[in-house]
Amino acid sequence: MASTTTTSQFFLVVSIISLVACSSANGQLSTNFYARNCSSLQNIVHDVMNQTVTKEPRMAASILRLFFHDCFGCDGSILLDDTGSFTGEKNAGPNMNSARGFEVIDAIKTRVEAACRNTLGGQSWQVPLGRRDSRTANFNRANSDLPSPSSNLATLINMFAAKGLTAQDMTVLSGGHAIGFSRCVFFRNRIHSETNIDPAFAAERKANCPNSGGSNNLGPFDDTPNRFDNNYYQNLVKRRGLLHSDQVLFNNGSQDATVRNYSTNAAAFLKDFGAAMVKMGNIGPLTGTNGEIRRSCRVINR
Q1: pTM for the predicted model, two decimal places
Q2: Which of 1, 72, 133, 173 has its CA 20 to 30 A from that of 222?
Protein backbone atom coordinates (compact mmCIF):
# COMPACT_ATOMS: atom_id res chain seq x y z
CA MET A 1 0.00 0.00 0.00
CA ALA A 2 2.76 2.45 0.84
CA SER A 3 4.33 2.34 -2.59
CA THR A 4 0.95 2.60 -4.29
CA THR A 5 -0.17 5.62 -2.32
CA THR A 6 3.18 7.35 -2.67
CA THR A 7 3.07 6.87 -6.44
CA SER A 8 -0.50 8.12 -6.57
CA GLN A 9 0.52 11.21 -4.63
CA PHE A 10 3.42 11.90 -6.96
CA PHE A 11 1.42 11.68 -10.16
CA LEU A 12 -1.34 13.70 -8.54
CA VAL A 13 1.15 16.48 -7.90
CA VAL A 14 2.53 16.23 -11.43
CA SER A 15 -0.92 16.71 -12.90
CA ILE A 16 -1.68 19.59 -10.56
CA ILE A 17 1.49 21.52 -11.22
CA SER A 18 1.08 21.15 -14.95
CA LEU A 19 -2.52 22.34 -14.69
CA VAL A 20 -1.70 25.28 -12.45
CA ALA A 21 1.41 26.43 -14.27
CA CYS A 22 0.56 29.09 -16.78
CA SER A 23 -0.66 27.72 -20.00
CA SER A 24 -1.02 26.93 -23.56
CA ALA A 25 -1.61 27.74 -27.20
CA ASN A 26 -4.48 28.27 -29.63
CA GLY A 27 -7.30 25.76 -29.94
CA GLN A 28 -9.63 23.77 -27.71
CA LEU A 29 -8.77 21.44 -24.83
CA SER A 30 -7.37 18.06 -25.82
CA THR A 31 -5.58 15.27 -23.95
CA ASN A 32 -2.78 15.21 -26.56
CA PHE A 33 -2.52 18.98 -27.04
CA TYR A 34 1.28 19.05 -26.60
CA ALA A 35 2.25 15.74 -28.19
CA ARG A 36 4.01 17.51 -31.06
CA ASN A 37 5.12 20.93 -29.86
CA CYS A 38 6.26 20.09 -26.32
CA SER A 39 6.84 16.37 -25.96
CA SER A 40 9.29 16.95 -23.08
CA LEU A 41 6.69 18.73 -20.93
CA GLN A 42 5.88 15.82 -18.64
CA ASN A 43 9.53 14.93 -18.10
CA ILE A 44 10.33 18.52 -17.12
CA VAL A 45 7.43 18.70 -14.68
CA HIS A 46 8.31 15.26 -13.30
CA ASP A 47 11.93 16.28 -12.73
CA VAL A 48 11.23 19.59 -10.98
CA MET A 49 8.48 18.13 -8.81
CA ASN A 50 10.61 15.14 -7.87
CA GLN A 51 13.41 17.43 -6.71
CA THR A 52 11.01 19.73 -4.90
CA VAL A 53 8.97 17.12 -3.02
CA THR A 54 12.09 15.15 -2.11
CA LYS A 55 13.53 18.27 -0.52
CA GLU A 56 10.27 19.42 1.10
CA PRO A 57 7.45 16.83 1.19
CA ARG A 58 4.96 19.44 2.43
CA MET A 59 5.18 21.19 -0.94
CA ALA A 60 3.04 18.44 -2.49
CA ALA A 61 0.06 19.55 -0.43
CA SER A 62 0.85 23.22 -1.06
CA ILE A 63 0.75 22.73 -4.84
CA LEU A 64 -2.46 20.73 -4.53
CA ARG A 65 -4.04 23.60 -2.59
CA LEU A 66 -2.78 26.13 -5.12
CA PHE A 67 -4.45 24.15 -7.90
CA PHE A 68 -7.74 24.07 -6.03
CA HIS A 69 -7.68 27.79 -5.28
CA ASP A 70 -6.97 28.64 -8.92
CA CYS A 71 -9.29 26.08 -10.47
CA PHE A 72 -12.51 27.55 -9.29
CA GLY A 73 -11.91 29.08 -12.75
CA CYS A 74 -8.72 27.50 -14.16
CA ASP A 75 -6.95 30.43 -15.78
CA GLY A 76 -3.74 30.93 -13.79
CA SER A 77 -5.05 34.16 -12.24
CA ILE A 78 -3.82 33.22 -8.76
CA LEU A 79 -0.25 33.39 -10.07
CA LEU A 80 -0.41 37.09 -10.96
CA ASP A 81 1.29 39.68 -8.77
CA ASP A 82 -0.48 42.97 -7.94
CA THR A 83 -0.22 45.71 -10.56
CA GLY A 84 -1.33 49.31 -10.87
CA SER A 85 -4.45 48.23 -12.75
CA PHE A 86 -5.65 45.34 -10.57
CA THR A 87 -5.16 43.75 -7.16
CA GLY A 88 -4.08 40.14 -7.47
CA GLU A 89 -5.50 37.16 -5.61
CA LYS A 90 -2.42 36.22 -3.58
CA ASN A 91 -3.42 38.44 -0.65
CA ALA A 92 -7.12 37.55 -0.66
CA GLY A 93 -8.29 36.00 2.60
CA PRO A 94 -8.14 32.34 1.53
CA ASN A 95 -4.62 32.79 0.10
CA MET A 96 -2.84 35.34 2.29
CA ASN A 97 0.05 33.84 4.26
CA SER A 98 -1.01 30.34 3.21
CA ALA A 99 -0.88 29.94 -0.58
CA ARG A 100 2.64 28.81 -1.43
CA GLY A 101 4.61 27.05 -4.13
CA PHE A 102 4.75 29.93 -6.63
CA GLU A 103 8.52 29.56 -6.91
CA VAL A 104 8.07 25.91 -7.94
CA ILE A 105 5.79 26.95 -10.77
CA ASP A 106 8.29 29.62 -11.79
CA ALA A 107 11.04 26.98 -11.94
CA ILE A 108 8.92 24.72 -14.12
CA LYS A 109 7.89 27.59 -16.38
CA THR A 110 11.52 28.65 -16.85
CA ARG A 111 12.57 25.18 -17.94
CA VAL A 112 9.54 24.66 -20.17
CA GLU A 113 10.05 28.04 -21.84
CA ALA A 114 13.63 27.05 -22.65
CA ALA A 115 12.51 23.76 -24.16
CA CYS A 116 9.11 24.66 -25.64
CA ARG A 117 8.69 28.41 -25.83
CA ASN A 118 5.14 29.74 -25.26
CA THR A 119 3.61 26.32 -24.58
CA LEU A 120 2.51 24.84 -21.27
CA GLY A 121 -0.53 23.00 -19.93
CA GLY A 122 -0.97 19.76 -18.02
CA GLN A 123 -1.26 16.00 -18.03
CA SER A 124 -0.96 12.97 -15.82
CA TRP A 125 -4.42 11.56 -15.76
CA GLN A 126 -6.06 12.12 -19.14
CA VAL A 127 -6.32 15.85 -18.50
CA PRO A 128 -7.63 17.98 -21.37
CA LEU A 129 -4.87 20.42 -22.30
CA GLY A 130 -4.79 23.80 -23.99
CA ARG A 131 -5.64 26.33 -21.30
CA ARG A 132 -4.62 29.94 -21.77
CA ASP A 133 -3.85 32.48 -19.07
CA SER A 134 -6.07 35.30 -17.88
CA ARG A 135 -4.91 38.88 -18.27
CA THR A 136 -6.27 39.94 -14.89
CA ALA A 137 -7.07 38.63 -11.42
CA ASN A 138 -10.12 39.05 -9.20
CA PHE A 139 -9.39 39.77 -5.54
CA ASN A 140 -13.06 39.96 -4.53
CA ARG A 141 -14.04 36.68 -6.18
CA ALA A 142 -11.10 34.94 -4.56
CA ASN A 143 -12.56 36.03 -1.23
CA SER A 144 -16.15 35.09 -2.03
CA ASP A 145 -15.91 31.97 -4.20
CA LEU A 146 -13.66 29.76 -2.07
CA PRO A 147 -14.99 27.81 0.93
CA SER A 148 -13.56 28.58 4.35
CA PRO A 149 -12.36 26.21 7.09
CA SER A 150 -15.53 27.08 9.03
CA SER A 151 -17.99 26.36 6.19
CA ASN A 152 -20.91 24.07 7.00
CA LEU A 153 -22.04 21.21 4.77
CA ALA A 154 -24.81 23.13 3.01
CA THR A 155 -22.43 25.98 2.20
CA LEU A 156 -19.84 23.59 0.81
CA ILE A 157 -22.38 21.80 -1.37
CA ASN A 158 -23.78 25.09 -2.68
CA MET A 159 -20.36 26.62 -3.43
CA PHE A 160 -19.26 23.57 -5.39
CA ALA A 161 -22.63 23.36 -7.15
CA ALA A 162 -22.14 26.95 -8.33
CA LYS A 163 -19.10 25.67 -10.22
CA GLY A 164 -20.91 22.69 -11.71
CA LEU A 165 -19.58 20.18 -9.18
CA THR A 166 -21.73 17.67 -7.30
CA ALA A 167 -21.83 16.95 -3.59
CA GLN A 168 -19.83 13.78 -4.24
CA ASP A 169 -17.26 15.81 -6.20
CA MET A 170 -16.97 18.09 -3.17
CA THR A 171 -16.50 15.19 -0.78
CA VAL A 172 -13.85 13.46 -2.86
CA LEU A 173 -11.99 16.70 -3.62
CA SER A 174 -11.92 17.40 0.12
CA GLY A 175 -9.74 14.29 0.18
CA GLY A 176 -6.96 16.55 -1.02
CA HIS A 177 -6.47 16.99 2.72
CA ALA A 178 -5.02 13.47 2.65
CA ILE A 179 -1.69 15.29 2.53
CA GLY A 180 -0.44 18.42 4.18
CA PHE A 181 -0.95 20.63 7.20
CA SER A 182 -3.14 23.48 8.38
CA ARG A 183 -2.29 26.50 10.51
CA CYS A 184 -3.57 26.56 14.08
CA VAL A 185 -5.64 29.68 13.42
CA PHE A 186 -7.89 27.64 11.12
CA PHE A 187 -8.59 24.75 13.51
CA ARG A 188 -8.30 26.41 16.94
CA ASN A 189 -12.05 26.81 17.42
CA ARG A 190 -12.71 23.21 16.41
CA ILE A 191 -10.34 21.61 18.90
CA HIS A 192 -11.19 23.96 21.78
CA SER A 193 -14.94 24.50 21.34
CA GLU A 194 -16.62 21.80 19.25
CA THR A 195 -18.16 18.65 20.72
CA ASN A 196 -18.23 16.30 17.71
CA ILE A 197 -14.51 15.59 18.11
CA ASP A 198 -12.54 12.71 19.56
CA PRO A 199 -11.23 13.99 22.94
CA ALA A 200 -7.84 12.33 22.55
CA PHE A 201 -7.41 13.89 19.11
CA ALA A 202 -8.38 17.32 20.44
CA ALA A 203 -5.84 16.98 23.25
CA GLU A 204 -3.10 16.07 20.75
CA ARG A 205 -3.76 19.15 18.66
CA LYS A 206 -4.15 21.48 21.65
CA ALA A 207 -0.55 20.72 22.60
CA ASN A 208 0.55 22.67 19.53
CA CYS A 209 -2.43 25.01 19.20
CA PRO A 210 -3.32 26.77 22.47
CA ASN A 211 -6.34 29.00 23.02
CA SER A 212 -4.19 32.03 22.31
CA GLY A 213 -0.88 32.36 20.53
CA GLY A 214 0.76 29.96 18.13
CA SER A 215 -1.60 30.82 15.28
CA ASN A 216 0.98 29.85 12.65
CA ASN A 217 1.80 26.50 14.25
CA LEU A 218 1.04 23.62 11.91
CA GLY A 219 -1.10 20.55 12.49
CA PRO A 220 -1.32 17.59 10.05
CA PHE A 221 -4.66 16.80 8.44
CA ASP A 222 -4.16 13.12 9.24
CA ASP A 223 -1.53 10.70 10.53
CA THR A 224 0.16 10.32 7.12
CA PRO A 225 0.56 13.94 5.92
CA ASN A 226 3.15 13.04 3.27
CA ARG A 227 1.31 10.07 1.77
CA PHE A 228 -1.77 10.32 -0.41
CA ASP A 229 -4.09 7.66 1.01
CA ASN A 230 -7.60 7.30 2.46
CA ASN A 231 -6.56 7.92 6.08
CA TYR A 232 -8.30 11.30 5.90
CA TYR A 233 -11.69 9.59 5.59
CA GLN A 234 -10.87 7.05 8.29
CA ASN A 235 -10.20 9.99 10.60
CA LEU A 236 -13.54 11.59 9.77
CA VAL A 237 -15.36 8.41 10.79
CA LYS A 238 -13.47 8.57 14.10
CA ARG A 239 -14.39 12.27 14.57
CA ARG A 240 -10.76 13.24 14.03
CA GLY A 241 -11.28 15.76 11.22
CA LEU A 242 -8.93 18.70 11.67
CA LEU A 243 -11.08 21.50 10.27
CA HIS A 244 -14.75 22.15 10.89
CA SER A 245 -15.24 21.95 7.12
CA ASP A 246 -13.65 18.49 7.19
CA GLN A 247 -15.78 16.98 9.94
CA VAL A 248 -19.08 18.27 8.52
CA LEU A 249 -18.63 15.70 5.75
CA PHE A 250 -19.31 13.02 8.37
CA ASN A 251 -21.77 14.32 10.93
CA ASN A 252 -25.10 12.54 10.33
CA GLY A 253 -25.50 14.28 7.00
CA SER A 254 -25.87 13.50 3.31
CA GLN A 255 -22.20 12.67 2.75
CA ASP A 256 -21.79 10.08 5.53
CA ALA A 257 -22.17 7.11 3.17
CA THR A 258 -19.60 8.50 0.72
CA VAL A 259 -17.11 9.10 3.53
CA ARG A 260 -17.63 5.56 4.87
CA ASN A 261 -17.07 4.14 1.40
CA TYR A 262 -13.80 6.00 0.88
CA SER A 263 -12.65 5.15 4.41
CA THR A 264 -12.69 1.44 3.54
CA ASN A 265 -12.01 1.57 -0.21
CA ALA A 266 -8.81 3.43 -1.08
CA ALA A 267 -9.01 2.35 -4.73
CA ALA A 268 -12.44 3.95 -5.14
CA PHE A 269 -11.18 7.17 -3.56
CA LEU A 270 -8.13 7.41 -5.84
CA LYS A 271 -10.20 6.66 -8.94
CA ASP A 272 -12.93 9.16 -8.08
CA PHE A 273 -10.41 11.79 -7.01
CA GLY A 274 -8.69 11.67 -10.39
CA ALA A 275 -12.01 12.05 -12.21
CA ALA A 276 -13.07 14.96 -9.98
CA MET A 277 -9.72 16.70 -10.48
CA VAL A 278 -10.19 16.57 -14.24
CA LYS A 279 -13.73 17.87 -13.86
CA MET A 280 -12.59 20.74 -11.64
CA GLY A 281 -9.77 21.51 -14.05
CA ASN A 282 -12.38 22.11 -16.74
CA ILE A 283 -14.13 24.92 -14.87
CA GLY A 284 -14.15 27.93 -17.17
CA PRO A 285 -10.82 27.47 -18.99
CA LEU A 286 -9.70 30.08 -21.51
CA THR A 287 -9.09 28.63 -24.97
CA GLY A 288 -8.72 29.74 -28.57
CA THR A 289 -7.94 33.46 -28.74
CA ASN A 290 -9.13 34.22 -25.20
CA GLY A 291 -6.47 35.20 -22.69
CA GLU A 292 -2.80 34.85 -23.53
CA ILE A 293 0.29 32.67 -23.13
CA ARG A 294 2.23 34.39 -20.38
CA ARG A 295 6.00 34.57 -20.69
CA SER A 296 6.18 34.91 -16.90
CA CYS A 297 3.51 33.31 -14.75
CA ARG A 298 3.53 36.29 -12.37
CA VAL A 299 2.81 39.12 -14.83
CA ILE A 300 0.74 39.64 -17.96
CA ASN A 301 2.56 40.15 -21.24
CA ARG A 302 3.36 43.73 -22.19
Answers
A1: 0.68
A2: 72
